[in-house]
Amino acid sequence: MDLSIGNELKDSFDETNKWVKGGIEWLSDVEEFYRTRASIEKEYSSKLLALSNDFIKRKLKVSTSLSVGETPTITPGSLEAASMVAWTEVLTRTEEIAKHRKDFSRSLEKKVLLELESIRSKYDSIRHQWKEFNEKIVVDRDHYYSEVDKAKKEYDSSCQIMEQTRQKTERSSSEKAQKKYKEKEIDMNILKNTYLIKINVANRLKDKYFYQDLPEILDGLQDLNESRVSRLNNILLTTTALEKSCNEKVNECLNAMDVVIKQNVPSLDTAMFIKHNLKDWKEPQDFYYIPSSIWHDDESMVTEPAEMNHLRIQLSTANAKYEKFVKTCETEKQILEEVLLKKKGLKEKYITGDELISKEEGYKYDELLMKYLKTLQNFTQDDVIRVVAEVEMETIQSSSDGNDLTAPIHEEKKSKRFGLFGKKTRHYTVPDTSDITSVHSNTNTMLSRSSTTTFSKARLFGSLLKSNTTTDSGSNAKALYDYEANGDDEVSISQGETFNVVNFDTDGSGWTEITKSSGEKGLVPTSYIETLESKASKIPPKVAPRRGAKKVQYLEALFDYEAAGDDELTIHAGDKIELITDDTDGWTEGKLNNVAGLFPSSYVKKL
């Protein structure tokens, strides 16, 4: 079961943190149980029975909060979390055990109690770090929120001064008064621009927190809690193993414990917690421009020459900062990818497994949890700086409106996020003032179409390990016909040969990427293969597909473009265009509805 608290529960840090904290604190109950039991084992069944009854009552008191949290939206009734069911099984079976030897008591003290104390202390420390991490992000986010209020106050104050200056100017038409009036107007407009930028930054950081940072923190707490459940399962399984070796008469009871404990998949607790804590969450409202009650104005950026000088400087500064931190973030994302994949491998091995693992393996996973937390902290902080710079650039760029502030996109290149996330990175340059006037009018038109990009509210990292959908990628397949490679990017196959699909044909190009058992990787015609998982019978074509068929590349239009000449092609946002000739001097040739022509390369993206 692949679940994500970050995907399912919105703005639920307090609830999740309390839930995880309760689970960790509950370990002290388990620890106390076995410590007390080790002493009672010496006095045999009478005290052992009393102890079991005592902890059943304790469990009843905390069962609801540990199963669904302290403030569930749906009451669980008599339902209990899988951990509670497993714990109940341990207690009830313990009631049936009346006699144990002294060696078993000593084994409990050495192999169980110390381990419980260790993991409780360690996991509580990790939980505190996640909490501090969230608090740090919230403080930083709220700081930018306060920047909006601060900018608003400064803007209102400048409007007040502007109005006073205007009134003085009406009484005096001297050149000095007019000059002072113009200076105050420029100051007011600069503060207005700053206010608008602060609004966009605050909105972007708000989205970043609720859709990127917070979900990752919640998933981190989820991983911590599931690791705790897994480690507890291992400890419980250890106690049952000790009892088996101590007394064959209780084997039947202990085997029953094993069955229930092994059914306690860590994600079951998560599933129950999510189900009973779903709530109708509404995204906080975006910040928006509020005009001064004194100086009436609209939300448009002021692009007069004096104000543009200030914007040009700010754009240059933001561009330098963006270029620096986009590289830093890319490096940190690659490190996170490696950690995530390692964590996933270990999690599949023992977090979701039912075998008793070694202490060393458990330590490896704990180290990965810590490394992931620290790396994510660094990335998130650097990414905030990158986002701020990016929003500032986008806000200024989209508001230039054909004036002398132009920052054309001179390069688009694909960059992989963790090797699995495709994203276009735009690099901006601010030309000298002398070059600005020579920019072709088409460039200004294209820039005016490129508005501030919308923040992606999809999970950045969670989708890598917690996707709820499946694809054909990686599925086993076999060849229906022989095919001989006709290019360096293709691979030869023989009829009946089996291999793994890397990227299945989803764009209609007719080609699928595979990896052979020999490690050879390349493209083959989709019609020449079939996936082994497919249960539907496949009727082979009467004539085998033509070998060496041309691969067709498609583009998707990002903006509308109206042809300005006979050799150009009119396109609309969303159109699927067949590529004829790739980017040449900023223009691409393609075919749409059997009509070929040129259009700006920046208006499309490759599928």
From TrEMBL:
Pfam families: FCH, SH3_1. The keyword Chloroplast does not apply. It comes from Komagataella phaffii (strain GS115 / ATCC 20864). This is Protein BZZ1. Keywords: Coiled coil, SH3 domain. Residues 3-269 form the F-BAR domain. Belongs to the BZZ1 family. InterPro entries: AH/BAR_dom_sf (IPR027267), Bzz1_SH3_1 (IPR035459), F_BAR_dom (IPR031160), FCH_dom (IPR001060), SH3-like_bac-type (IPR003646), SH3-like_dom_sf (IPR036028), SH3_domain (IPR001452). GO terms for biological process: actin nucleation; endocytosis; regulation of actin filament polymerization; response to salt stress. Residues 467-533 form the SH3b domain. Plays a role in endocytosis and trafficking to the vacuole. Functions with type I myosins to restore polarity of the actin cytoskeleton after NaCl stress. GO terms for cellular component: actin cortical patch; plasma membrane. Residues 472-534, 550-607 form the SH3 domain. GO terms for molecular function: enzyme activator activity; phospholipid binding.
